[in-house]
Specification:
By secondary structure, the protein is of the alpha/beta class. Helices cover 36% and strands 21% of the residues.
Length: 263
């Protein structure tokens, strides 16, 4: 359970998909929903009048989106921010929030380029982040989580909690190397003990972790992963999360803890 759902919007179709996803969950959980819009400083370079017009447009957008949620049954507020989008959203959230953003990144792309807002925001945020693709999510069911040898239980516990709350099956994709012995995972055993009624399906793979997770998520309601560990190539997040965010096949929940996930 999160203290607030904070959703970043810019008027685009992906951000509206993110707002719809966040609003539904906020209503179910009975927690406040904050709609945030960021005006970037480039507007100031065009002159004061242009910047003021942009701020008014942002304010109008927030009013329109908040009005569209009238009667949703949750506390809705708005906030208009100014600055670089990833940093502004990160500063507007608290560690116990869930920051929700939309993305159009649903195609195949490799590389360590921090050219996607979803990657930048996941790298900057201090709270858990949900990245929602602009695609039809109806009829999807199940939660998939990626873990690696030596993982802490936090990521899989977060995935188990999501699956339990919605009465869905949890699929665990466990990345192993050719030299890794197949042995029970303490994290998986702990989750099974904590959620005795939860259906858990475990699959071990020697494939690329990102490809395995993306394939497993094609028909799932949620994919859960940790941020991983930066590889010294300019990104503070792991290569697996980076590739997953650039090739989304499902909503992704990035559980915020630098020790967690596949790197």
């Amino acid at each position: 359970m999160y203290a607030r759902y904070v959703v970043g919007v810019d008027g685009s179709s992906p951000s509206r998909a993110a707002l719809s996803w966040a609003a539904g969950r906020a209503e179910t959980d009975g927690v406040p929903l904050v709609i945030a819009h960021v005006e970037e400083p480039e507007g100031g370079m065009m002159g004061g009048d242009f910047a003021r017009t942009e701020m008014r447009s942002g304010s109008d957008l927030l009013t329109q989106l908040a009005s569209s949620l009238h009667g949703h049954g949750t506390d809705v507020s708005t906030t208009l921010l100014s600055g670089f989008v990833p940093w502004s959203l990160a500063e507007a959230t608290r560690p116990d929030d869930l920051l929700v953003i939309g993305t159009h990144k649903t195609g195949f792309l490799h590389g360590r380029v921090l050219g996607s807002r979803s990657v930048q925001i996941a790298a900057s945020a201090r709270c858990t982040v949900a990245v929602i693709p602009d695609t039809d999510l109806r009829r999807r069911t199940g939660v998939v989580v990626g873990v690696r040898p030596g993982e802490t239980p936090d990521v899989i516990e977060a995935a188990a909690a999501e699956a339990s709350r919605h009465g869905q099956q949890l699929s665990v994709i466990r990345s192993i190397s050719p030299h890794t012995e197949k042995e029970p995972s303490p994290a998986i055993q702990a989750v099974q003990a904590a959620h005795p009624g939860l259906s858990i399906r475990t699959k071990e793979t020697r494939r690329s972790p990102a490809e395995a997770l993306l394939d497993a998520g094609r028909d799932k309601a949620l994919l859960v992963i940790g941020p991983g560990v930066g590889t010294g190539t300019g990104s503070p997040i792991g290569s697996v999360l980076h590739d997953v965010l650039l090739n989304l096949t499902a909503p992704v929940l990035v559980v915020r803890d630098p020790r967690q996930g596949l790197g």
